Amino acid sequence: MNLWFGTVPVFLIAATGAILLLRRWRKPAFKILAALNIAVMAGSLALLAGALTAAPAAASGGVAPALAAAATDSPPGAGGSALIAAAIAVAGSSIGAAFAVAYTGSAALAAMSERPEIFGRAMVVVGLAEGIAIYGLIIAIILIGKA
């Protein structure tokens, strides 16, 4: 069984508990849930820091000398840092593109409601806003290639 399927019941129990907590005690429940969120965030940041600063595991037995030399060439966690940077690049550019499309799309629809013949020009502006996400994807591909 996949590990992620095992987390579904835990998520459902936590969500049900949060809903019941919010229904019963409205104001104190927000403080309790905020404290739980801060504790989970601190734990995940400690886990991330431990994963990024950990040394590579030593293989037992007859490891080829070329593989052992290649494993020690880069600093520990360098590949993981590049992958995290790629994820941040994609997430940031996608969020930026979402805001850009929201504003330009609503303005384009408002302009097209008055003058329907400007559909092509309005869609070009919305397409340019989508280009922001593509730039982030290109940066992520470059970063993954360097990892």
Automatic annotation (TrEMBL):
Residues passing through the membrane, by range: 6-22, 34-55, 82-110, 122-144
UniProt xrefs under Pfam families: ATP-synt_C
Entry keyword Nuclease: no
Cellular localisation: Membrane
Cited InterPro entries: ATPase_proteolipid_c-like_dom (IPR002379), ATPase_proteolipid_csu (IPR000245), F/V-ATP_Csub_sf (IPR035921)
Domain annotation V-ATPase proteolipid subunit C-like: ranges: 84-143
Keyword list, A-Z: Ion transport, Membrane, Transmembrane, Transmembrane helix, Transport
UniProt record similarity statement: Belongs to the V-ATPase proteolipid subunit family.
Name of the protein in its database record: ATP synthase subunit C
Native species: Arthrobacter methylotrophus
Lineage: Bacteria, Bacillati, Actinomycetota, Actinomycetes, Micrococcales
